[in-house]
Structure formats: structure tokens, C-alpha cells
Amino acid sequence: xxxxxxxxxxxxxxxxxxxxxxxxxxxxxxxxxxxxxxxxxxxxxxxxxxxxxxxxxxxxxxxxxxxxxxxxxxxxxxxxxxxxxxxxxxxxxxxxxxxxxxxxxxxxxxxxxxxxxxxxxxxxxxxxxxxxxxxxxxxxxxxxxxxxxx
Length: 150
Description:
Distance between the termini: 38 Å
Strand content: 5-15%
Shape: elongated
Order of helices and strands: EHEHEHEHEHH
Radius of gyration: 19 Å
Low-confidence stretches: none
Largest sheet: 5 strands, parallel
Structural class: alpha/beta
Oligomer: single chain
């Protein structure tokens, strides 16, 4: 069990993570942009570290520096921002900080819909009809309509 977790997110998701950590008896660290200095998640966290402007939420070095500065043993990315960034998860590992989420390999395998479909198909998972990766727009004609592209 971790003693302190840094939340690399903001707003409602950060508040939810803070409440859960508190119920678990785990300390929380919020990182925040200058614009979010007065936000509820900043006030609710046990500790808070400013990471600059709004792009700070995507700044791997700033987030990891905040983890080191506060002694956080793990990073919870919430969703969005760095949550699906395999390089960030690897950087956490390299810095000796646990990443709470999927492994970098899992992110790479399942982050691309066509790759996830390939893996699911190989594993025998039932799937809705669809295609693999379409290389050109004209290839969509073989699918038929209605058509949803992702």
C-alpha cells in the first residue's frame, strides 16, 4: 500500500481520487496550474504543488519533480492528460514512482482500435462487425453504410 499518491489531473476526477485515498488512509498530492490555484481539488488535497501554466498537466518532468519533491510513491493519472501516455508510465518507472494504471505495453496494444481488435480476435473474444485499419478512404466503400469511423 502506498503512503502518498500524486494525482496528475484536475477538477472532479482529482476530487474523487482524493476522497478515495482519504478513505484508504493514503496521503494525496495535487498538482495544479496557476489558473487552478483556488480550485476545490487543490484545497482538498493533503499537499499541492504548482506546475505552472495550463500545459503543466502534460509536463512529464514537472509532474515527476512534484512527486519527488513531496515523496509521493505513486502517480494516479485520472483520465485524459497523461493517462494514456506510455512514455509517461515508463518515465514514472524510471524515476522509481509507481504508475497507477495499465502498463506501457498494454497502452500501446490497446490504445489503437485496430490493434485492440486484432488482439481480441486472436483471443477469441466476440466482437461486433468491423474492419481492421483502412489504408485509404476508398477502402471504406467495402464496409457499407451506415459507417462510423474512429
